[in-house]
Amino acid sequence: MSTQAPPNSVAPVDAYGTPLIDASALIPGLAPGARVLVKDETRYASGSHKEPAARAVIARAAADGHRRVVIATCGNYGRAMAMACRTAGMACTVVLPEGWSDGGAWMREQGANVHLVPGSYEDAVDESRRLAEADGAVDGNVDGPYVDAVFEGHGVVVPALRAALGEPPAALWIPVGNGTTTIAVHRQVRALGWPTVINGVCSAGNNPVVTSWPGEYTMLPPDGVTTTDHNQPLVNWHALQGAEAMTAIADTGGTVYGADDEQLLAARAALAGFGAHPTAAGSVAMAGLLAHAEAAGGLSGTHVVLLSGR
To answer: Which of 7, 69, 82, 254 could form a disulfide with 198, with the two C-beta atoms 3.0–4.6 Å apart?
Structure first.
């Protein structure tokens, strides 16, 4: 991908080709009183912010002599892993719930072997672990043996922000699924000594981090979530690292927000105003910021919003 900065970016794009865009300068009144910067990680070649994590897992797996990686996905991690494996010459098996994403077509184009399973993301995780063991492959899931590599990859956004901004933002707005990105960012924020607040956002009522907050993490019943065309990648009844993610958010004084489909679509429409084109689900962090800004009557300081997929 091109590494030329778009005219509305506040700094040169990082080594991965993802810009930081000053949304509040382009859309006055977006969040009164605040400077809103958008880290558009849909511009990775795979279209997914999970690409650095996938790359880190594959590098570690290859160094350990593995030749195949197996993962479960709602779509984004599968896209990122399929591309990372193709680049590294590693075989890849992706397990995807039937009817989700594009049915695995894009992953197949990258050379991945796609298994479709009935049920939910959690069912795909169970099947991926079974396949990994049966095939003698490595489990590349976000809570698998290379979990530290996953955190390493997801954490690269913080050094990129430090290089671009020079000072800590007031808040970061991050999509919450399994909780992995939140944990990784929290570790980097603490390592830098930043006082930045981390806010997590996911589909309202369809993720246990959202429904548990601010209490104790509690899984949802498997039939307690509702999948739509817009929230699909955000839906899970068990967030694999949800409890730790909640602890990380609380440690920064942040909170967790739920966004419904109408809010996801409104956020996507707002983002299109300055050339960012995530899916509705990929816009979830912006949906959380906009809802909070409206409820609070405005914000203050610099807020960074992470876009997660296209």
So the answer is: 254
Domain hosting 254: range is: 20-47+151-307
CA 128 – CA 139 distance, rounded (Å): 8
What does the block give as tokens for 170? 């007031």
Q: What is the dihedral of CA 287, 171, 153, 167, to 10 degrees?
A: 140
Chain-centroid distance of CA 145 in Å reads 20
* End position of a domain, from candidates 125, 147, 169: 147
Tokens of 188: 């980097």
Residue 76 has pLDDT above 50, yes or no: yes
Mean pLDDT of 114-142: 94
Has residue 297 been placed in a domain? yes
Whether 174 maps to a domain, the answer reads yes
CATH code, domain with 135: 3.40.50.1100
Residue 144 CB coordination number (10 Å): 21
Pick the last residue of a domain from 126, 147, 168: 147
How big is the chain by its Cα radius of gyration, in Å? 18
pTM confidence score: 0.91
Separation of CA 122 from chain center: 17
CA dist 20 and 11 (Å) reads 7
> 5: pLDDT confidence band, cut at 50, 70 and 90?
very low
**What are the residues whose beta carbons fall under 8 Å from the beta carbon of 188, sequence distance 6 or more?**
155, 157, 158, 159
CA atoms within 13 A on the CB side of 266: 11
The letter for the amino acid at 184 is A
DSSP 159: H
100 and 76 Cβ atoms separated by less than 8 Å: no
Burial of 215 (0-12, 13-18, 19+ CB in 10 A): exposed
Residue 12 CB neighbours (<10 A) = 13
Q: Could you tell me if 244 and 107 lie in one domain? A: no
Specify whether 125 is located in the same domain as 272: no
Residue carrying the six token digits 């695995």: 104
For the chain, give the number of residues. 310
179 and 109, same domain (yes or no): no
